Amino acid sequence: RERVRAMFYHAYEHYLESAFPYDELRPLTCDGQDTWGSFSLTLIDALDTLLILGNVSEFQRVVSVLQEGVDFDIDVNASVFETNIRVVGGLLSAHLLSKKAGVEVEAGWPCSGPLLRMAEEAARKLLPAFQTPTGMPYGTVNLLHGVNAGETPVTCTAGIGTFIVEFATLSHLTGDPVFEDVARKALKALWKNRSEIGLVGNHIDVVTAKWVAQDAGIGAGVDSYFEYLVKGAILLQDRELMSMFLEYNKAIKNYTKFDDWYLWVQMYKGTVSMPVFQSLEAYWPGLQSLIGDVDNAMRTFLNYYTVWKQFGGLPEFYNIPQGYTVDKREGYPLRPELIESAMYLYRATRDPTLLELGRDAVESIEKISKVDCGFATIKDLRDHRLDNRMESFFLAETVKYLYLLFDPDNFIHNDGSVFDVVITPYGECVLNAGGYVFNTEAHPIDPAALHCCRKRKEEQWEVEDLMREFYSLKKNKKFTFKRASDHGEGESAKDPEDATSEKGGEKRNSKKSSHSLLSCPSQSFNSKLAVLGQVFLDNT
């Protein structure tokens, strides 16, 4: 753990010294470059890692630097996907961790705050990309002018389906539903356009919904779409998203899985198109662990680990039958995915093999890629030539997951035994109780925060009705409650256990006796009145 901490500071301090305010450090020439849009990206990406390492003073300093220095009103063409996962995700995570880091927060926090406003501003710059006939977004947007005339309509699947975690969080915190709405519409458009055998391809035309690249797999171009169906389902307690993933999971096992490897197949026929393992696929065992499929996850993880041991890193592409790298894809840009899976699986199994992978990763990265000014991308794992780049995800993800693998007592691993209670304008809410959901750039989102800023009219009306009836009790001893449906019950008032699902016109009602929040069954007042879990018996 201490070696990982030292790795972080070696890279971080050289970024500040040689590259800030550029996006990324160039470690071989000790200078900086803008890559994804000129946001001081490495600083935003590394912010929550600082807190996970326990450095509250630097976290506070960086928060004030970002507030003064980052401007999204710039004439820059930015990747919609990358800006969302790195900038919006990084700012949201830092916003929700601010109080824990000792930052003076506003009275309305977590429903308001400077970092939340920055995240919202960045996300609003991305919204023009979603204005397509299908609801699937363009891949690139100009932050000042919106989508450029002549912009290609071809976007990768992940670039369409990787918004729900950040955008739903934004909608819940700000009260503006537009973000979650566009993210859901895009997810559902991909689902609607899956093939008859249940697979999605790699790239699609967002105007016509025609598949341009028809390779189906779990790796590059598709990966985080599947990840966000699972994480969105967990974050939002959303059964529909989870059932979509489980359907895909069946098709993936049927058509792409061979001996605990996953290959690429033609999306309509299921025939193998590339017998290749990509380093980006190494997130999959971690994702399997999130749905409880730990045995399959471990078997696949061990396959991937053999590749790591062969090269001291994961090449971008690995030809499975030949057992070697693929031409022009021999590099390792210090990606986190295998370490991420090790961190999840270690939480699930405590298998010491996973710690060995962590140790091997520390050894490899220090031995091969450490240079005077940071850590350099490995251009070729066969001869260990380096490239003059240190991606921001090295500090956001690789180092973070390594540290969390070796730090079982970190606050991120909280099991709910400790928590904070915060008073918001909408009542009390619990925060920092654990269960963090990492976005695909390893920015942890506190799922409890999504319940802090509810200002649903339906609930407000019901409370008002109850209060009115309470005060008119003396005049009128007999009355019944209004049901929530009188007001058109909002989704926030639904109990996931009590959901009514409609499929093919069929209605299925869960027969549990629990009722939605604030929608009590009709009964006389003096038998019982229950509001938000507080029971008032008739002698009170």
TrEMBL record:
Ca(2+) binds at T440. It is found in: Endoplasmic reticulum. Its main location: endoplasmic reticulum. GO terms for cellular component: endoplasmic reticulum quality control compartment; membrane. Its cofactor is Ca(2+). Residues 484-508 have a biased composition (Basic and acidic residues). It is an enzyme of class 3 (hydrolase). The active site is at E82 (proton donor), D223, E316 (proton donor), E337. One of its GO terms (molecular function) is calcium ion binding. The keyword Lyase does not apply. Its EC number is 3.2.1.-. One of its GO terms (biological process) is response to unfolded protein. Involved in the endoplasmic reticulum-associated degradation (ERAD) pathway that targets misfolded glycoproteins for degradation in an N-glycan-dependent manner. May initiate ERAD by promoting the first mannose trimming step of ERAD substrates, from Man9GlcNAc2 to Man8GlcNAc2. Seems to recognize and bind to exposed hydrophobic regions in target proteins. Belongs to the glycosyl hydrolase 47 family. This is alpha-1,2-Mannosidase. It comes from Steatornis caripensis.
